[in-house]
C-alpha cells in the first residue's frame, strides 16, 4: 500500500513540477493534478505517460490500482484559475 505523500514524492523526484496535488486515502486509488513546464508542446497522452513513468513499477505491481491524472502546463493552469 502507498500513501498520497509517497505518490507525490515519486512524481516530484522524476518530474520538475510547478504544482502537484495528490489525493486518495485508501492506499490504492489516487487522483493527481500535476503542473509542469515539461508538458509544453506535447499531447495529453504523452503528459500522462511522463507522470506514470515517475511511478516506476508501482502501477504494474498493483501497489497503485488506479491513478486519475490531470496535467497542465503552467500557462494552461493559469488560464484555468483565471476563470
Report on the structure:
- By secondary structure, the chain is α+β, with helices and mostly antiparallel strands.
- It has one domain (4-82): GMP Synthetase, Chain A, domain 3.
- Helix content is 37%, strand content 23%.
- It contains three helices and three strands; from the N terminus they run αββαβα.
- The protein has a three-stranded mixed sheet.
- β1 (19-23) and β2 form a beta hairpin.
- α1 packs across α2.
- The longest helix has 11 residues, at 4-14.
- It is globular, with a radius of gyration of 12 Å.
- The mean pLDDT is 94.
Question: Topology of this structure?
Answer:
Blueprint lengths: L3 H11 L4 E5 L5 E7 L8 H11 L11 E7 L1 H9 L1
Helix pairs in contact: 1-2
What brief labels describe this structure?
83 residues, alpha+beta, GMP Synthetase, Chain A, domain 3, three-stranded mixed sheet, 3 helices, 3 strands, BolA-like_sf, BolA family transcriptional regulator, BolA/IbaG_stress_morph_reg, BolA
Amino acid at each position: 500500500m502507498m500513501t498520497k505523500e509517497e505518490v507525490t514524492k515519486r512524481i516530484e523526484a522524476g518530474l520538475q513540477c510547478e504544482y502537484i496535488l495528490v489525493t486518495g486515502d485508501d492506499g490504492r486509488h489516487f487522483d493527481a493534478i500535476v503542473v509542469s513546464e515539461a508538458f509544453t508542446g506535447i499531447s495529453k497522452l504523452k503528459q500522462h505517460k511522463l507522470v506514470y513513468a515517475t511511478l516506476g513499477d508501482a502501477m504494474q505491481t498493483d501497489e497503485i490500482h488506479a491513478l486519475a491524472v490531470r496535467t497542465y502546463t503552467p500557462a494552461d493552469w493559469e488560464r484555468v484559475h483565471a476563470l
